[in-house]
Structures are given as C-alpha cells and as structure tokens.
Specification:
Layout lengths: L3 E2 L7 E4 L8 E4 L2 E4 L9 E3 L8 E4 L2 E6 L8 E2 L4 E2 L24 E6 L5 E2 L3 E6 L5 H10 L11 E3 L10 H15 L4 E8 L7 H6 L9 E5 L6 H16 L5 E4 L4 E6 L10 H14 L3 E4 L9 H5 L5 H20 L10 H6 L4 H8 L8 E5 L9 E5 L5 H10 L4 E6 L11 E5 L2 H6 L6 E2 L9 H16 L5 H4 L15
Parallel strand pairs: 12-13, 12-14, 14-15, 17-18, 17-21, 18-20, 19-20, 21-22, 22-23
Antiparallel strand pairs: 1-2, 2-5, 3-4, 5-8, 6-7, 7-9, 10-11, 10-16
Helix pairs in contact: 1-4, 2-10, 5-12
Length: 493
C-alpha cells in the first residue's frame, strides 16, 4: 500500500493514505518533500511552499486559498485554508462530454410489474398521509408480519411527521413524495393510511399519483373506520394475496435505476469510494441503465464539471437553475451558502466545500448528463440524471427513492447505520471502517489504495449491485432498518 497520493499532476498538495510521521522524506516528481509534522490519514500536505492567498490545488482544481503561509511538507487543512467560493455566479456552456460506448447486456432477477416497471423487492408498504397516524401504521406493520411468506419479503411502515399544517409548495412536496413512494415498483402492494381531517388527505394524494392500480394500492381513512387495526390487517391480507403472485424473473440491467449519495465523507472518499461509484455508474449506463446524483449543496464549487457534461444547452440551463435555486434557498433563510463541510468531514481531512464537492462529484463518473430533476420529479431519461435535494442523508436518499431509484449507493468514510425506503448499500472509503463496522458496511472501496485496480473494483461493485437487485439483503435490511424523510422547506401552521 502506498503512503500518499497526488491525485492530479497540477496539485500542490498530496493526500496521506495512512497516518504519516513527522520527518518522513518523500521524492515526488523529482521534488524532495520532508514532512514537518504528523499528517493524519486522509489529510493533505504541501508539496511546495504556499504563500498567503495562493490557491490550494487538489483534483487539478482550486479547493480554496491559503489563509497564511504554508511550508513545504506542512499539514494543509482548516487552520490554514479557506473557501474561495462566492455567491451566485454567471455560467457559460463549454460542452466536454461524450457518449459512452455500449457494452454487453447484464441481467438480474427482479419483479416485473403490470405497468412495465421492474422492482428489486416485493414488499408490502404502509404509507401514512399524516404524522398523526404514524403509531397506527407502525403497529399495523408489526402485527402483519405473519404475511411475510412466499415472495412477500417485508412488511414495512414509513412514518413521517408531515401531511398537515403545511403551506404552499412545502405541502405539495410532501404530497408528491408520498405519491411517488406509493407508486414505487419495489412495493408489491401499498396500504395508504389516512386520518381524515388532514390537509394532505387521501383524495389530495391521489391527485399526485400518475396511476392507481386498485389491486396493488388500498386506502384506509382511520376516522371513518370503527376498528382501523382490524380493517387495515384485512386490507393487507388482500394486498399480500395480490403481491404474492409475483416471482423473480430474469430482467435486463438496463431497467435498473441506481441513486448515488455520500455522507460522513473523509479525505479518502473522493479518492476511493466516490470514484468507484462513478466507474460503476459508467458501467451501468453503458448497459442502458440509469443513475441519479443528488445533494446539490455538495456540488457547489464543482458544478461547472457537471454543466459542461450536459448533453445539450437546455440541460445546461436546467443545471444552472438547479445550483442557483439552491443557493437562493439558503440566502432566503439568511443562511451562509458555504456553511460546509461538517465537523466529521473536517476530522476526516476535508478542508473546504470545494474539497468536499470535487470529491462528491466523482460519483458521477464520465457519462453525459441526460436529465435534471426537480425535487419529487421521477426520472424519465436513461443515463446520468441530476436531482434537486439537500445534502441531508435521509432526505436525499428518500428523494432518490421517490425519483425512482431501486437501490441507493451510499459512500462514507465515517460510517452510518441509516436506511432509506429502498436497499441502501454502504460503501466504505477505507478498509479500517469496513473492518470495524461489519454490521453497517456492505462494500469496501478502501481496497483501491491497496493495489486493487479500479476496473476490477468497479466491476466487483457492479456484480454486487446485481446480487442486491436479485434479492441479496444489505446490512441495513438485515438489521430491519427502513427510514424515510421528507424535505421540510416552509412554514408550519
């Protein structure tokens, strides 16, 4: 295993791949560098003397400027680096993208639905329209576990605190996310559980549903029932009878939609885990499949790389709006646009938002951007899509599922146990995390700096995803975790 990596030939910093001791001497492109202090794993050190105000270059791009003089071999981090980002920017389109070559067909065993969609799970979902019935939904799911048999894989409730006392677009977003999840093909049957007096009642939710198969979706208004538990279980039994008819069949990987998200990143995330997911994305797209990249605030500082890969000028302008609308969202709440990275990110070696964003966007691979989606909008175009959602792990992962993702790939350098409405694959950026949290981490991308070639590692991830799509449970599923969160943007009455 090598000690460090200089990611791009123009970088004036290198990244420690393991803790490096003070006094260690390295020769880098004919330049001798002596470490003048300890460098933690994932953190940067200077390859030359860097003067105050000079740009810090990583990934071949500026990640900030020096707040003070930095001596060659010195630790480069938040104590001596600051962001160089401004507020709203003017952008111009400089297309640099290219179409990926098609590769041979791949297959998985999925569930073919009546509407032509494909699911990777055959679960019964209970979706409350409002937080008031959360406890009933959860109790109902617990009591209905006897229906988990045959091809019925899970009975899951998705409690949330919204659906009433919301206004305008905030309420519309809640309705749309719930409608998207009701129609998700990973659910063989869905019970929509309403209270009866809420703003986002069942009739309102129906208006946001693109379709409503009455065999697959049933509705129950608790205030109109004498015994909502008994009535709910009866409806779940009917849904189980319907969903139980579905069996896994051979499906083309071109029908897969995979969401891509990172959280708890460290200094290795942009070197190992995120580029591995990017290479995976290219593999899937080359086979006709679809990927979705989200967490817009973690594109700030790297957005032009995505803009220049837009397939046409219309998508470029949509991407500009995607970025600037999110910046306006921050400023409309009197918040600093660049209040990022998090304490955990900084501890792991990420110094600025540019540093984080350039690592984050590695997940997009090299494919052209073929779609740009609003929050709650479902994917229509095959290939790489960008989705408007915040960086919050649960909110963004739920948004990916609502937009149609069958599975979410979640890269992390710190680790997290959370789940989403769909199988959520945790990918560690380093082998230490993979070894420590075997109950959380599904795939180890840290092997990339332990002499496993990217081509082999990304194909290993692709095969693993096909296994998950064919029924292999991820660690969060084995633990029984199923989470969802909706983006709260407006006033609560």
């Amino acid at each position: 295993m090598q000690d460090f990596i200089r990611i791009h030939k123009n970088d004036n910093v290198a990244v420690a791949l393991k803790p490096l001791p003070e006094g260690k001497v390295y020769k880098i492109d004919g330049n001798e560098v002596t470490l003048i202090e300890e460098i933690p794993q994932g953190h940067k050190f200077a390859l030359k003397d860097i003067c105050t105000g000079e740009e810090i270059i990583k990934y071949g791009f500026r990640i900030g400027t020096a707040k003070e003089d930095v001596e060659k071999g010195g630790w480069v981090h938040v104590q001596n680096v600051k962001t160089a980002l401004g507020d709203l920017l003017e952008y111009s389109y400089h297309p640099t993208g290219f179409e990926l070559e098609q590769t041979e067909t791949a297959y998985f065993d999925g569930y073919k639905r009546k509407n032509g969609k494909v699911g990777v799970r055959n679960e019964l979902w209970i979706i409350p329209t409002v937080g008031c019935v959360n406890s009933i939904a959860s109790a109902m799911a617990n009591q209905a576990q006897y229906l988990k048999k045959g091809s019925i894989e899970e009975i899951v409730a998705f409690p949330h605190p919204y659906g009433c006392s919301q206004m305008g677009d905030d309420q519309e977003n809640t309705r749309q996310i719930l409608a998207d999840l009701i129609n998700h093909p990973n659910a063989g049957g869905v019970l929509v559980l309403g209270l009866g007096c809420e703003n986002s009642n069942i009739e309102e939710i129906k208006k946001h549903m693109s379709e409503c198969d009455e065999e697959r979706v049933r509705f129950l208004v608790c205030q109109e029932s004498d015994d909502e538990m008994a009535d709910g279980l009866k409806l779940l039994e009917e849904l189980a009878e319907y969903a139980g008819q579905f069996k896994r069949e051979k499906c083309d990987a071109s029908s897969l939609i995979i969401g891509m998200k990172c959280g708890g990143s460290d200094g290795l995330s942009g070197i190992t885990a995120n580029p591995t997911v990017g290479a995976f994305s290219d593999i899937l797209i080359s086979k006709g499949g679809t990927t979705i990249l989200t967490e817009v605030p973690e594109m700030f500082g790297a957005e032009t790389l995505l803009m220049d890969r837009c397939a046409n000028e219309e998508l470029f302008h949509k991407t500009v709006d995607l970025i600037n609308n999110f910046k306006n969202y921050f400023t409309s709440h009197n918040q600093t646009i660049y209040e990022n990275p998090s304490p955990g990110n900084k501890k792991g070696g990420i110094s600025t938002l540019e540093d984080k964003s350039l690592g984050c966007t590695q997940k997009s691979g090299s494919a052209l951007v073929k779609g740009v989606l609003e929050y709650g909008e479902q994917v229509q175009e095959k290939g790489l899509n960008l989705l408007s959602a915040p960086g919050n792990d649960l909110v963004a992962s739920t948004a990916l599922a609502a937009s149609g993702a069958h599975i979410v790939l979640f890269t992390t350098g710190r680790g997290t146990p959370f789940a989403s409405p769909v199988p959520t694959v945790k990918i560690s950026s380093n082998s230490k995390l993979h070894g420590k949290k075997t109950n959380w981490i599904d795939f180890n991308a840290g092997r990339l700096v332990e002499d496993m070639p990217m081509e082999e590692l990304s194909m290993d991830l692709f095969q693993y995803v096909l296994e998950v799509a064919s029924g292999r449970k991820v660690k969060a599923e084995e633990a029984g975790f199923h989470d969802m969160a909706i983006f709260k943007q407006g006033v609560t009455l």
